[in-house]
User: Which sequence fits this backbone?
């Protein structure tokens, strides 16, 4: 990879200094400029060549959101990585920034631990995301190289190739790029959705609460964070709480969900594999799993279990994914029934969920022929 030119905007001089030091320890990165607020950042960005912007969202004067709005008009192709505080206000503003077109975010380290620990956290959190984003935005020939063709199981060997069972539960996994993808997908689903929807998005605790609030404001469905054991009903979306896994089980006709404080899986808590595995155990072939954009391979083992149980699995395609890690590994393993662009995902979900539901077909016929109702 050629040198990555980064521009920093943060109102705290010490933060700009530390970030510059940490980033330039990597030989592939150079900081080409800094600014103390959004207006200064817009002015200085016009004078330098930058490949990526790291943006604080809470600043005096022109804040990060205002800068982002103007930047997406003048330089929509520039990837933006939000660097925000782990506070309720910081989380809400970060979710707003992602909805405005920011590429991803990194929470600032909490005011605990040593300075060395804070530096290590920043280094480990930022560097991988910066390089991944640059592959996605500036080097499509690398990021989107067609994977080598590998033999896939023949149709008769795949449990999900059987006649699908009725979908009684939808489970969704997402990571990098997921907040934006969920922000498009969840509001596009109808309020009378006939099954519960359970979502794992890799995020810290305060951020999952903010994301649930944002989705709930924009969706016809009821969206909430799963912070206690409770019943999940059709028409509800439950988001795993940050720093907790989410499990699902079945008691009679009731779908029960619960947070689980156990060890991270795939370095993640919440982990997609935990949710998908419990869905496979308790709902088997009556599950529709959706794997959205994300780095890594969390969800792959859960998808293997779901496929063995006869569940349906659909994944986001490479072109519409911010990172085709999680959906890509499921696709290459031959576990996906369908691979779709994000804009087609809600239609595909509805098609599969409505299969085998005569009440829906009756409503559809009535809508097409309203005179017959009189």
Assistant:
């Amino acid at each position: 990879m050629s040198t990555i030119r980064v521009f920093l905007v943060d109102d705290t001089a010490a933060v700009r200094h530390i970030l510059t030091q940490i980033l330039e320890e990597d030989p592939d990165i150079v900081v080409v400029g800094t600014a103390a607020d959004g207006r200064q950042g817009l002015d200085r960005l016009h004078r330098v060549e930058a490949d990526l912007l790291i943006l604080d969202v809470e600043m005096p004067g022109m804040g990060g959101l205002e800068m982002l709005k103007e930047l997406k008009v003048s330089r929509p192709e520039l990837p933006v990585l939000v660097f925000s505080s782990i506070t309720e206000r910081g989380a809400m503003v970060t979710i707003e920034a992602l909805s405005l077109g920011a590429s991803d975010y990194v929470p600032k380290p909490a005011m605990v631990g040593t300075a060395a620990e804070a530096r290590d956290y920043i280094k480990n959190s930022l560097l991988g995301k910066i390089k991944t984003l640059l592959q996605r935005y500036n080097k499509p020939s690398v990021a989107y190289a067609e994977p080598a063709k590998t033999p896939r199981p023949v149709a008769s060997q795949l449990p999900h190739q059987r006649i699908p069972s009725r979908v009684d539960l939808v489970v969704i996994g997402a990571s990098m790029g997921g907040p934006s993808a969920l922000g498009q997908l969840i509001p596009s689903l109808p309020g009378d959705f006939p099954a519960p929807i359970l979502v794992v998005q890799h995020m810290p605790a305060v951020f999952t609460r903010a994301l649930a609030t944002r989705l709930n404001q924009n969706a016809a469905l009821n969206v909430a964070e799963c912070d206690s054991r409770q019943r999940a009903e059709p028409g509800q979306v439950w988001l795993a709480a940050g720093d907790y896994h989410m499990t699902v089980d079945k008691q009679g006709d009731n779908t029960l969900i619960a947070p689980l404080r156990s060890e991270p899986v795939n370095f993640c808590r919440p982990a997609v594999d935990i949710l998908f595995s419990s869905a496979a155990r308790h709902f088997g072939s009556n599950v529709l799993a959706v794997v959205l954009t994300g780095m890594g391979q969390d969800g792959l083992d859960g998808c293997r279990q779901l496929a063995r149980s006869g569940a349906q699995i659909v994944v986001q395609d490479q072109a519409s994914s911010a990172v085709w890690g999680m959906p890509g590994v499921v696709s290459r393993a031959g576990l996906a029934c369908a691979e779709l662009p994000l804009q087609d995902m809600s239609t595909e979900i509805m098609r599969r969920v409505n299969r085998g539901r005569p009440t829906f077909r009756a409503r559809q016929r009535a809508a097409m022929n309203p005179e017959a109702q009189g």
The longest strand covers residues 29-35. Residues 115-138 form the longest helix (24 residues). The CA atoms of residues 151 and 183 lie 35 Å apart. The chain has a mean pLDDT of 88.
